[in-house]
């Protein structure tokens, strides 16, 4: 008989919209060698979850991997676990979609492998107490969350072993606590260290079971792990150690449930793993949270007070990152539209609109931690691409205007949709265009990320000033290492004072130049950029719609100015923004209108000359320019000549391989010089046209 039990679960996932080369690297460096290695050790039996995006990709590109998994399932070496098919955070999508995604995965596993899955891999282990009521009716009997959840429920470390049962309104669910220490030991330490950890854990504690559950990508895809796991044969050594010593029995979670009863009933608060609850803090609080933990550890009080120390929760990402909130609310809006058109559907013949909606609910682009997530523009693009595709698949193709609190801040936004474009305007934030989507191209042009402080930026500055350390052969988990992928990253630690929306209005003195503007080191003389505009009028016209906004604001040191901004949105993909300015003073000032567009592979054409928009540029006295990308073009022109400033927006963010500079968009600033005269009207007009 083994001395200890180790219920073991592996989770494999790649985001919707990830690059093909990364998916291929994951197969060759991780998924294929992992499966081929464990095939040689039939006594190693475990639970496996693979997300829907990977299943679909395997079906097309690597069907032999599915065949291998099927053989391992048939010989009972692998127990397949379910989850939301496209890896959504179940508590943060509409319940109808959560049930649909779960049912779709269960249906896939049954049809493809002949198994009825009773286990759930909970995406990012984001738990809410309502989940048992959602999961139990679908036949889900157990899931895994982290020991953090159990600390937050008032348990001490010595009590978190075996498994537990919880319920909501009588709907029961078994819960395994994932041991954090094991996540940091496997596969980074000697197999004997794992056994010694079991010995130390149960020295003064009755019990014999700890649970492991984590990302399978750490077995070859995480930095330096391929060399460790396969070249240095960590995995083979680990599996051989288990067979030879017979001290720890690894087994699937379902099998452990059938052998042993739960330890106790428990009620867990909303939570995720410890690192996630740190990342979701706003930077100031994240720094203080880490400082407090360090203080408790230095005073040797961490174990005593750990149950009373908890971080933020996943919801806080929607406050921390307005771009995440806007993406989430767009998803909610599209889900409502899809539900109205498809109240019922067959899983075997899934409507295209539902499939694209579910793909857009893949969690990765909605948050940021050690992985790039929200900071990766191609993941945000994939979310919006699928949301637009879902809308395009709906039967209603009429022009639609909705006036509602779209972003849930207590203020209403103006939402326009036509078969050609979607354009959303936020009157209460500078009268800004917050979303522009080119529907026939399935492109969101405006999901530009604001440059903002992150808790880890302090570490970047410290790392740059530290002498370089000698390299060691030690391989650490990504949570234990901090690398800089590029030099001079501190030069890009620039922070914006407003969101990177569109048709934001500035009044600039002659002291402001392209450099100070791009670095957000300038004084805006006006109070128009982020302040509210009033809606004067709106309605439909023959070829589109119009919205008239106005604001009477102050120009610092000069006086007041009334600004009327009229949007005309034509059904064929053209936006005209007409400005009327009524000053109560006389002076020379520069009026600047700001546009921020996500254009990673576009070029700029001015006077038939092509320019790269990833460089800082300035053009004087022009009246129009064109942005091109393959067969797509955006034409921008003005009624009066203007100066044009262009600069790329880069952030410094973490990824699993280290801190890096990432392109978030390009800022275009249109500057008109006005010789303002008291009580006279001054006019400028911008035209933005989308064309093939």
Output the radius of gyration: 28 Å
Question: Beta-strand level of the residues, as a percent range?
Answer: 25-35%
Major sheet: size, sense and barrel closure?
Answer: 12 strands, antiparallel
Number of strands: 26
Structure annotation, total helices:
20
Low-confidence stretches: none
Content-based structural category: alpha+beta
Mean of all residue-level pLDDT scores: 95
* Principal-axis shape: elongated
CATH architecture of the domain at 4-272: Alpha-Beta Barrel
The level of helicity is 25-40%
CATH class of the domain at 4-272: Alpha Beta
CATH topology title of the domain at 4-272 = 7-stranded beta/alpha barrel
Distance between the termini: 71 Å
Nutshell version of this structure?
The chain is an alpha+beta fold. The protein is 29% helix and 29% strand. The mean pLDDT is 95.
Overview of the molecule:
There is one protein chain. The protein is of the alpha+beta class. Among the domains are: 4-272, 7-stranded beta/alpha barrel; 480-531 and 553-570 and 577-691, Beta-galactosidase, Chain A, domain 5 (Distorted Sandwich), CATH 2.70.98. It is built from 20 helices and 26 strands. Strands 15, 16, 17, 18, 19, 20, 21, 22, 23, 24, 25 and 26 form a 12-stranded antiparallel sheet that branches. Strands 1, 2, 3, 8 and 9 form a 5-stranded parallel sheet that branches. The longest helix has 20 residues, at 20-39. The N and C termini lie far apart (71 Å). The model has no long low-confidence stretch (mean pLDDT 95).
């Amino acid at each position: 008989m083994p001395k200890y039990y180790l219920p073991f679960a592996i989770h494999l996932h790649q985001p919707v919209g990830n690059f093909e080369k990364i998916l291929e690297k994951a197969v060759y460096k991780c998924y294929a060698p992992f499966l081929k290695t464990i095939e040689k050790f039939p006594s190693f039996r475990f639970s496996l979850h693979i997300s829907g995006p990977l299943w679909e990709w395997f079906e097309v590109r690597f069907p032999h991997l599915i065949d291998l998994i099927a053989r391992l399932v048939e010989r009972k070496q692998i127990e397949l676990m379910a989850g939301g098919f496209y890896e959504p955070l179940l508590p943060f999508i509409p319940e109808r979609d959560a049930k649909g995604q779960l049912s779709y995965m269960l249906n896939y596993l049954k049809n493809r492998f002949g198994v009825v899955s009773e286990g759930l891999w909970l995406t990012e282990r984001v738990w809410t107490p309502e989940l048992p009521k959602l999961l139990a009716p679908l036949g889900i009997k157990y899931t895994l969350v982290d020991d953090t959840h159990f600390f937050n429920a008032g348990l001490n470390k010595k009590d978190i072993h075996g498994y537990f049962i919880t319920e909501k309104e009588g709907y029961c669910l078994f819960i395994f606590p994932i041991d954090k220490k094991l996540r940091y030991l496997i596969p980074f330490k000697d197999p004997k260290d794992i056994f010694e950890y079991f010995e130390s854990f149960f020295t003064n504690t009755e019990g014999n079971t700890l649970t492991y559950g984590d990302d399978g990508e750490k077995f070859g895809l995480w930095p330096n792990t391929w060399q460790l796991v396969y070249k240095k044969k960590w995995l083979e050594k680990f599996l051989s150690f288990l067979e030879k010593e017979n001290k720890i029995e690894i087994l699937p979670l379902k099998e452990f449930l059938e052998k042993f009863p739960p330890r106790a009933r428990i009620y867990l608060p909303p939570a995720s793993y410890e690192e996630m609850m740190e990342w979701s803090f706003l930077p100031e609080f994240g720094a203080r949270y880490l400082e407090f933990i360090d203080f408790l550890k230095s005073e040797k009080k961490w174990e005593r007070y750990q149950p009373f120390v908890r971080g933020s929760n996943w919801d806080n990402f929607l406050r921390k990152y307005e771009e995440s909130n806007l993406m989430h609310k767009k998803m909610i809006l599209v889900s409502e539209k899809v539900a109205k058109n498809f109240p019922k559907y067959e899983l075997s013949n899934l409507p295209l609109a539902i499939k694209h909606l579910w793909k857009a609910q893949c969690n990765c682009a909605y948050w940021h931690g050690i992985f790039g997530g929200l900071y990766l523009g191609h993941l945000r693009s994939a979310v919006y691409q699928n949301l637009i595709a879902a809308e395009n698949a709906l039967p209603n193709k009429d022009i639609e205007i909705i006036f509602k609190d779209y972003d849930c801040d207590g203020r209403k936004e103006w939402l326009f949709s036509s078969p050609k474009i979607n354009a959303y305007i936020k009157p209460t934030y500078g009268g800004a265009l917050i979303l522009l989507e080119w529907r026939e191209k399935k492109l969101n042009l405006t999901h530009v990320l604001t440059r903002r402080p992150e808790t880890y930026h302090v570490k970047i500055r410290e790392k740059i000033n530290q002498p370089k350390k000698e390299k060691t052969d030690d391989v650490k988990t990504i949570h234990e290492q901090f690398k800089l992928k590029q030099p001079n990253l501190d030069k890009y630690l620039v922070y914006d004072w407003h969101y990177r929306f569109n048709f934001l209005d500035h009044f600039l003195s002659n002291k402001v130049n392209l450099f100070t503007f791009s670095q957000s080191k300038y004084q805006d003389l006006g109070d128009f950029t982020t302040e509210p505009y009033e809606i004067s009028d709106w309605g439909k016209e023959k070829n589109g719609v119009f919205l008239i906004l106005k604001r009477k604001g102050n120009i610092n040191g000069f006086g007041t100015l009334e600004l009327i901004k009229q949007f005309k949105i034509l059904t064929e993909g053209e936006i005209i923004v007409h400005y009327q300015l009524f000053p109560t003073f006389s002076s020379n000032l520069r009026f600047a209108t700001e546009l921020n567009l996500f254009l990673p592979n576009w070029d700029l054409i001015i006077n038939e000359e092509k320019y790269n928009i990833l460089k800082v540029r300035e053009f004087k006295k022009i009246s129009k320019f064109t942005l091109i990308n393959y067969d797509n073009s955006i034409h921008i022109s003005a009624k009066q000549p203007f100066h044009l400033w262009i600069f790329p927006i880069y952030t410094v963010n973490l990824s699993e391989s280290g801190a890096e500079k990432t392109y978030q968009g390009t800022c275009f600033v249109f500057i008109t010089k006005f010789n303002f005269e008291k009580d006279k009207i001054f006019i400028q007009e911008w035209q933005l046209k989308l064309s093939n």
